């Protein structure tokens, strides 16, 4: 899930989710990417909506062909927390996905983003795919929310379905770039990249939150869900708060939360190399 429905991208929230994001990602895609990048002689990586650099911290040591990184975000406070990864030069680029993000593709061999795709619009993706195809860049978008949430607690809670439906409705609202793709992000991206000749593979990368170490993230996540549901259904506020209290009381130990994500890896046709 790109973020809590309240759309807070503060460094504290991103820091809390980073270890969970890293353990949830589909690691075999990185092995494929390392090999493919080496074969194709790739050198440069563009991380779109890079925030504080979580994607860089995950991929930096794994993509040994990467000689330079550019991390783009429109939030200067988040970008200020991106630190150089070992000897690899890292440039931060303050800009918007729709302007500087699209333009920066012309210098990238790999275009990547983590926890981003569900925030963007189809129109932006179509533009991005055309630019990537023109450049012959590879593409890796990880941790794209897919709309599936499962709560396994002491029993079924009648409020679960109501909350999850509201979250998914909220996910497709305006996130600054037109209507967000929300849970449809991965299938839409596959369609859009295939249309410009890419071979796409996807794999699940779910968050599974259960133990004490996940308790703070789980609580903030559920609070964000309730805020989103309340925004859509203000008359249901007390019912939603009661649901939150019940589910938080079960965590950790009595509740496991699974939040469905997909990772997408896409390569241009080798003939277009
Ligand atoms: C859910 S966060 C993910 C951050 C980072 N990739 C990670 O995995 O921790 C989404 C990021 O996209 C950035 N973002 C959202 N809309 C943007 C836009 N229109 N232009 C540039 N960055 C944007 C936010 O500032 C935020 O850092």
Describe the structure.
The chain has helices at residues 11-24, 27-40, 54-59, 76-79, 97-104, 122-135, 159-171, 185-195, 215-232, 237-250, and strands spanning 44-48, 68-73, 90-94, 110-114, 138-152, 198-204, 207-209, 256-268. It has 273 residues and is of the alpha/beta class. The model has no long low-confidence stretch (mean pLDDT 92). It starts with 10 loop residues before the first helix and ends in a 5-residue tail after the last strand. It contains ten helices and eight strands. The chain binds S-adenosylmethionine. S-adenosylmethionine (SAM) binds next to helix 1 and helix 3.
Structure summary:
The protein has 10 helices and 8 strands. It has helices at 11-24, 27-40, 54-59, 76-79, 97-104, 122-135, 159-171, 185-195, 215-232, 237-250; strands at residues 44-48, 68-73, 90-94, 110-114, 138-152, 198-204, 207-209, 256-268.
The distinct ligands, each listed once, are: S-adenosylmethionine
Mean pLDDT across residues: 92
Helices and strands, in N-to-C order? HHEHEHEHEHEHHEEHHE
CATH architecture of the domain at 11-146 and 172-207 and 260-272: 3-Layer(aba) Sandwich
Query: Radius of gyration over alpha carbons?
Result: 19 Å
Attribute tags:
about 270 residues, alpha/beta, Rossmann fold, eight-stranded mixed beta sheet, 10 helices, 8 strands, about 40% helix, about 20% strand, binds S-adenosylmethionine
Secondary-structure map:
Elements: H1 11-24, H2 27-40, E1 44-48, H3 54-59, E2 68-73, H4 76-79, E3 90-94, H5 97-104, E4 110-114, H6 122-135, E5 138-152, H7 159-171, H8 185-195, E6 198-204, E7 207-209, H9 215-232, H10 237-250, E8 256-268
Parallel strand pairs: 1-2, 1-4, 2-3, 4-5
Antiparallel strand pairs: 5-8, 6-8, 7-8
The site of S-adenosylmethionine has 22 residues, from helix 1 and helix 3.
């Amino acid at each position: 899930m790109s973020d809590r429905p309240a759309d807070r991208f503060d460094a504290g929230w991103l820091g809390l989710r980073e270890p969970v994001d890293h353990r949830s990602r589909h690691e075999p895609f990185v092995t494929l990417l390392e090999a493919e990048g080496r074969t194709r002689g790739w050198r440069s990586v563009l991380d779109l909506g890079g925030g504080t650099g979580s994607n860089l911290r995950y991929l930096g040591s794994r993509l040994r062909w990467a000689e330079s990184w550019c991390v783009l975000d429109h939030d200067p406070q988040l970008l200020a927390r991106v630190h150089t990864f070992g000897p690899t030069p890292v440039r931060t680029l303050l800009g918007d996905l729709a302007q500087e993000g699209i333009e920066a593709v012309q210098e990238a061999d790999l275009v990547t983003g983590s926890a981003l795709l569900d925030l963007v619009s189809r129109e932006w993706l179509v533009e991005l795919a055309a630019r990537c195809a023109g450049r012959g860049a590879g593409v890796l978008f990880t941790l794209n929310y897919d709309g599936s949430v499962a709560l396994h607690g002491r029993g079924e809670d009648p409020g679960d379905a109501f909350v999850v439906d509201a979250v998914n409705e909220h996910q497709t609202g305006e996130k600054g770039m037109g209507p967000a793709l929300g849970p449809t992000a991965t299938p839409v991206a596959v369609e859009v990249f295939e249309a410009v000749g890419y071979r796409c593979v996807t794999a699940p990368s779910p968050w599974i939150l259960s133990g004490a170490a996940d308790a703070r993230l789980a609580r903030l996540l559920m609070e964000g869900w309730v805020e989103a549901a309340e925004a859509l259904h203000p008359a249901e506020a007390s019912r939603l708060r009661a649901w939150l209290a019940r589910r938080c009381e079960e965590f950790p130990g009595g509740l496991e939360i699974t939040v469905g994500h997909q990772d997408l890896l896409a390569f241009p046709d080798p003939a277009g190399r």
